[in-house]
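Sharing in case it's useful to others searching the archive later.

Someone asked me privately for the predicted structure of Neural EGFL like 2, so I'm posting the question and my answer publicly. Question first, with the sequence:
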Amino acid sequence: MGLKLFLVLGLFCVTSVLGFGVDPALRINVFDELTLGEGFDGVTQVQGFHSESRAFHFQGSSREVKAPEDVSVRMLQKLRGRTEFTVLVTLKQEHLNSGVILSIHHSEQRFLELESSGQRSEVRLHYRTKGQQAHTEVFPYSLADGQWHKVSVAVSASHIILHVDCNRIYERVVEIPFMDIPDDATFWLGQRNSAHGFFKGVMQDVQILVLPQGFISQCPDLNRTCPTCNDFHGLVQKIMELQDILAKTSSKLSRAEEKMNGLDGCYCERTCSVKGVVYREDESWTDGCRNCTCTVGYVCVCVCLNCPESEQVNLTDRCCKVCRGMGKHTLLISKSLQESLQQQKNTWTQSERSALCVTSDLCALGHDFCAEGHGCVEHSDCINLEAGARCSCKDGFRPLRDDNAYCEDIDECAEGKHYCRENTVCVNTPGSFMCICHRGYIRIDDYSCTEHDECVSGLHSCDQNALCFNKVGGHSCSCKPGYTGNGTVCKAMCDGLCQNGGTCISPNNCICQQGFTGKRCETDINECKMGRNTCANDTVCFNLEGGYDCRCPHGRNCTGDCILDNKVKHNRQIWVLDNDRCSVCSCQTGQVMCRRMVCDCENPTADLFCCPECDPRLSSQCLHQNGLLTYGSGESWVENCQQCQCLQGQVDCWPLSCPPVDCEFTVVPEGECCARCIIDPCQADTIRNDITKTCTDEHGIQRFSGSSWVKHGTECTLCQCKNGHICCSVDPMCL
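And my answer, the predicted structure tokens:
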């Protein structure tokens, strides 16, 4: 099914170039909306990258460029609920500045924020996922170089493309942004808030287009060639909706088939109702001077005797003639009348047949008395009977009065009418009940639970190199073979240990110090034979244990110079690396030695970039996010799973580095920042959805991974397909 969808989308691909006149309803021109240049401190109009629109210089840290409430509402209305949009900006950012280009947030929740970090050479997109989780997508790229750049971030459902200067830099599949932005969210430009994230430099053409490939307006030569990821998601969503309709229709057909099958065991007697009296089929009665019979409705005729007309006489006390000398009357319906009745029988309506089906819902095939109005009110359904309607309490309810018009809920838990088993507690719900697992236990089925397996779920404290053993009320840890420790912390063991200062990083695997190699770091590297030395041409290289020496031949006056990258460095010369201003190297009798710069804060010429801790200026201090703490330049801290650093008055925060997890199902345990792999898909926070892995629901309908539905026969049980696994849970809003 998934393959067919991709083939269908492939047929949609076109090669036409979009002429980009953007509908104003789909464009948010931020400068125009904020009327920038009118009363914003720290913002001045300057010459831009081109002269077709205004450009503004953002400077200082005392500004507050925030959209007024009515303007913010108007802008966010265009963006709210959208899954396709493009953020555009042309900018020239100061060297090493880390600042926010624009930010839409509510309290601490960032719904959309574009940030450029000069300190770490990164572009960051912050947003919230559909699972209400904060997410940061990091693109390694430096914009803070003092040069003009055209920047575009295009979002189409789970698809993000970063363009810089009309070049596609990154294209990624990510979690879908959640753009249900609250009405009272705030819109900031050039800063995160009044205290943090100040962008320093010039910006021009800051826009948000509610289009998937808005970068074409910035770079018209970039052509849209295929449908967007959102187009695909929309198609999948429509198919999911059709699947849901099919499931509901199948359910109705199944119930109809059950009723139709019940018809084979039913006998529906035909009756006639005359003046409040019900007569069975073929039953006769007298109506004045007429004899009547119940035959497909009812027919009344005068009595005609079986004798020649010349033999029939009238009597004063009789309605009809009688035969002379006969005291016995015989009812005779003429042959023509019988034929007439047979013809009527073929065209009689169901209400005229008055089928009597008291014991089942088959009465609904007859006259619908319920449709004419009924008194069934609270938790009561109307049911059609032969001669009228009656009320019947819904399942799980009992009548409050004799006519069943009002019904009350039956508390199955209090009355012991439930099926909850071990490790559960019964909770009453309207018309039914639920079995809730005890704390620390997980569900087996709707009625029973088992002990929570902390090892399987990944919610344990064992080291990644330890084995987890589930126990009653907890778990224990034991280091794997080849590791030693208490299970919570396990260190690798190397047989024979690592030699020459090597470090054991995994069983029988050593990392060697410079100058040595081998499984146990037992072999010295000969830098002289392998060309790994910096000795000048006038010296001779001599191999040493773990290194080498540059020696001057006897009788010669050697310079002691070094050869590095085909360049001569003189003996005792000191220099700073071109690609790292904070690393200092020196030439020592033919050998190059490099180290990080030693910070001497008493030296007035200390490089404050490499030694931010030596910056004594108050302006270089940073305010913590809570507004209560201050940090000196160079200090670091962790906040909300982000590593933050203060550098010359600017705070830069980036996501904590987490080890990669290569698995289908992951969860971030409470109080932690990094995801762990788990086996149970129903406990996963994040799923690597594969639409080729479908689920079969209770109706036999195939569901795509990621689709959800309400379980048949329930109102509060929500089921979801997770890569071939069906996970159901009770909606707490129903309780």
